[in-house]
């Protein structure tokens, strides 16, 4: 049995226990049932997305929250669609949850439009202060807090990595969603450092698969090109396989801001571990369920960034990666 199938069966079993919660609840008359909403940007059934929410559920279990006994979890899958985010945010708020887990800044925004009082714990969220979801990192002051994925300055590090693996790159396509701060801010950060690396930038939008394919194909007509996927994840994740395939087809060395991309065939990823953030988010949810307020819980930054290199993809692109870079990698995929 494949790992993905095993994870999917484990997750379905978890959902099955959620569906059966009223029967168990009647058997546990003395313990109140709390309700948690989960709104993530992944496509329903995506193996990695299920791995994330499973890590969250396991974190809750370790803190004494058992599905069907003292907690019910309502899952919604946004599939990177802003309209779905808004619709599902309204649905979850209408259920009067004790707290909601959100996987992207745009989801936090949709939830705060639906309610300024329902507590929100976010993960993998870029620049929560700039997005207006919290007042400051140390004292959020709103109904949201959680775990930021990285600052915009990280985008400059991606360009540095790209030049290290492909020194001849003079042109870089930046795939980003211009309609959200994470996309426009990430591009702006790369624009700030691009002159020092001697590269010219070409923005590529992500409104549809056709837009991505046309943009990358047009960019690849000229030589010495490379690719950086800025995101945010909620916008680019639905097109992950397409973007990786296009980078391979047009022989573009590429750097990605999520570890799952290199593990899925992309060249290099440099990012914090999302699974760790989901697991740590369970701790904040636990504290909120026990009476603490999001406004008083500081937003936490990643404790560690990981470098994942797909050596198989490098060979396919004809790249010889520096030994110094390979030595720095946390994971090398042969």
Short description:
With 334 residues, the chain is α/β, with parallel strands linked by helices. The chain is 45% helix and 19% strand.
Characterization of the model:
The protein has 334 residues and is of the alpha/beta class. It is 45% helix and 19% strand. The chain is elongated, with a radius of gyration of 20 Å.
What tags apply to this protein structure?
alpha/beta; 12 strands; seven-stranded mixed sheet; 19% strand; disordered N terminus; 45% helix; 334 residues
What is this structure's SSE topology?
Blueprint: H1 3-19, H2 21-27, E1 34-40, H3 47-62, E2 71-77, H4 82-94, E3 99-102, H5 105-114, E4 120-125, E5 144-148, H6 154-165, E6 171-176, H7 181-197, E7 200-204, H8 209-219, E8 225-231, H9 233-236, H10 240-249, E9 254-256, H11 259-263, E10 268-272, H12 274-289, E11 305-310, H13 311-316, H14 323-328, E12 331-333
Parallel strand pairs: 1-2, 1-3, 3-4, 4-5, 6-7, 6-8, 8-9, 9-10, 11-12
Antiparallel strand pairs: 10-11
Helix pairs in contact: 1-3, 3-12, 4-5, 6-7, 8-10
Structural class: alpha/beta
Order of helices and strands: HHEHEHEHEEHEHEHEHHEHEHEHHE
Could you give a short account of the major beta sheet? 7 strands, mixed
Calculate Rg over CA atoms.
20 Å
- The total of beta strands comes to 12
* Termini Cα gap: 22 Å
If you average the pLDDT, what whole number results?
88
What percentage of the residues does DSSP assign to strands (E)? 15-25%
Give the helix level as a range of percent: 40-55%
Point out poorly predicted stretches.
1-28
With strands numbered from the N-terminus, the spatial order across the biggest sheet is 7-6-8-9-10-11-12
What kind of oligomer do you see?
Answer: single chain
The shape is: elongated
Give the helix tally.
14
